[in-house]
Amino acid sequence: MTPELDEHGRLDPPLDADEWGTLCGFLDYQRATFAWKCRGLDAAQLARTLPPSPMTLAGMMKHLAYVEDDWFSRDLHDEPLREPWASVDWRARPEWEWETAVVDDPDEVRALWTASVERARELAARAYEEGGLGIAAKRRFPDGRSPSLRWIMTHMIEEYARHNGHADLLRESIDGEVGE
């Protein structure tokens, strides 16, 4: 039996997979939930805030694109930051991705996020094939510790779940659409 997508384009995480399949399933479910919350919105809607927070769906999308690239490319595989991240002066503008997303073309932000997700899936799978969930990220924390692929996958599920809560509130304030 082929799994079916729900009405929002999401595939439920598997009920009986191994640890890798379960983590991938939950992360992809969270990614699909975020995509649903941003689907069909124009630039003004993606730039709308829900005071007192300055957070926007556009900013969140660009932030998540950065987080995907940072954890899976830079940290896990020690690849250099790619554009648009590489040329940012992060010390001068630590919120750059949030600030710039509201003036960027929405299709470009969506494409950036989609490409980052696709690249992250490939890089996670490559690391898993090389050393399983216990493989350590090549970049170390300042204290010398290095998170495992298992930790990174779990962290990314948490990252999306937290931001999906924000996205729920923003989307409801835009057009009343609600749902888990």
TrEMBL record:
SUPFAM superfamilies named in the record: DinB/YfiT-like putative metalloenzymes
Source taxon at top rank: Bacteria
One Pfam family named in its UniProt record: MST
UniProt xrefs under Gene3D superfamilies: dinb family like domain (1.20.120.450)
Annotated InterPro entries: DinB/YfiT-like, MST-like
Protein name from the UniProt record: DinB family protein
Gene source species: Brachybacterium kimchii
